Amino acid sequence: MKHRKLVIIPTYNESENIQDMVRTVMNLDGHFELLVIDDGSPDGTGELVKGLQKDFDERLHLIERKGKLGLGTAYITGFKWALSHGYDYIFEMDADFSHDPKDLIRLYQACAEEGFDMAIGSRYITGVNVVNWPIGRVLMSYFASVYVRFITGLPISDSTAGFKCYHRSVLAGIKLDEIRFIGYAFQIEMKFTAWKLGFKIKEVPIIFTDRTRGTSKMSKGIFKEAVFGVIWMKIKSIFSPYQLNQSEWTESGLPVK
Question: Is residue 138 in a domain?
């Protein structure tokens, strides 16, 4: 059976990267489709995507939003679009080539061939596999995941990773409208929620290479959200256990877990 695969890439001012990224994903084996969610980039990122759509036979999709609304809300928008359009496997990936598009195939294989519900492109499962980051940022990222494991018990080495593959059952099972965070805490919250709902998760080792073009979207506010968000998630899980979104699950044609 041929699976429908959708890669979601949120963008804001990624004109230096987006054309090369689109062409690279479109040329991978496995007939991936791509959804770009652009938050009104003033550098014309959205227009560049529109210019490429005619070349890729309805495999390249674009949602344009007005203003910078945040990473988490972009992915939630993309997840809902993917579920409503019947995709089997949905991927998260950055636009700046810090994630190697070729690794999409390995993430897909971990789910489709090995039977996992979710696969994470992990920088830390086999050591520290990060290129071109200053040591301070490497340490901050690594110990953020240590902190998450300590507070929540989440058995994942790279809890802030943003390179992932979901089987549609995971996104149908999560109550997407109740996902609270919009920055890097969003990545932690999605993993924590999937784990609490009993989905099978695998970390696939990758090499993360920092962007060489464009500018990073990291900020102190995003980091602060993650630090305090982890504590909120742990408290919430104690007093309000996570439950499967059964209405969406059954509407998607999936048996209740």
Answer: yes
For residue 69, what is the domain's CATH number? 3.90.550.10
| pTM, entire model | 0.91
Residue 204's CB is within 10 A of a number of other CB atoms, namely 22
159 is written with which tokens?
A: 């809890």
Residue 19 lies in a domain: yes
- Residue 256 inside a domain? The answer is no
Residue 82 in this model has a pLDDT that exceeds 90: yes
Q: How far is CA 250 from the centre of its chain?
A: 24
**Could you count the other beta carbons within 10 Å of the beta carbon of residue 240?**
9
Contact partners, residue 40, CB within 8 Å, separation at least 6: 12, 46, 64, 65, 66, 67, 68
In this predicted model, which residue has the larger pLDDT, 151 or 212?
Answer: 151
Q: Based on the structure, what is the number of domains in the chain?
A: 1
Cα 144 to Cα 148: distance, rounded to the nearest angstrom: 6
End-to-end CA distance of the chain: 23
Q: Which domain holds residue 150?
A: 5-251
